[in-house]
Amino acid sequence: MTPSRGVQVFEKTIPASTAMALPMTKGQILRVVDAQGQQAADLIAYNLHAIGEGLSTEVTVQILRTSNPSTGQTLYSIEWNPMLTIVADTVRTNYLPGEICSDEANFFRYGVRGSVNCRDNLAAAVAAWGVTKGQVHGAFAAFLNMAYLPDGRTVVQEPVSKAGDYVELRAEMDVLVAISACPQTLNCCNAYNPTPLGIVLYEPPGPSQR
User: pTM value?
Assistant: First the structure.
């Protein structure tokens, strides 16, 4: 029981280098926990009743005018509808514009084929809901620590998140959410050491709990 969040209804560990999906009803709050520290978490989302409407990093950046959304800001769908609002964030290093790691990206950037990656893991996690791999691309990357160079380029840095740090997101519609404990080891986004994530789902608090 968490008085400010309502009743805990679900808790699970996402093992390192894997992903999982779960439906959320409007008003529920999902806490994504960096269990051991320095672990990026890639999150994608879809309208549970219209799977073709997915989270759009491009639309969200246009609306928020930031690539690092945090507490009090909302993530939007490709239809410009609010999907998830960040209601708590203990780290405040998140990233939106980047494409999630994939076999294709790892080959393009590092010349490596057959690597475990977020895109394939997330596609497998949402397949049961009819989501295709083609619908899995950009994500809200919690705990991802990006630096901006004077010439405008971005560079991945080791995460500053510590064990127990978390971000919480409230569903603004019924959504299907999938989270990847990013398996990347070809750059330092996980400090070259993929580790598990924790997730906790809360029902919204009733009137007596507010």
Answer: 0.93
* Per-residue pLDDT tens over the stretch 10-25: 999 999 999 999 999 9
CA distance 145 to 38: 9
Q: How far apart are CA 26 and CA 210, in angstroms?
A: 17
164 closest CA partner among 44, 73, 31, 21: 31
Listed by start position, the domains of the chain span 8-203
Distance CA 44, CA 57 (A): 10
Assign 158 to helix, strand or coil.
coil
Return the ∠ at Cα 146 (arms to 139 and 114), rounded to 5°: 55
Other beta carbons within 10 Å of 79: 13
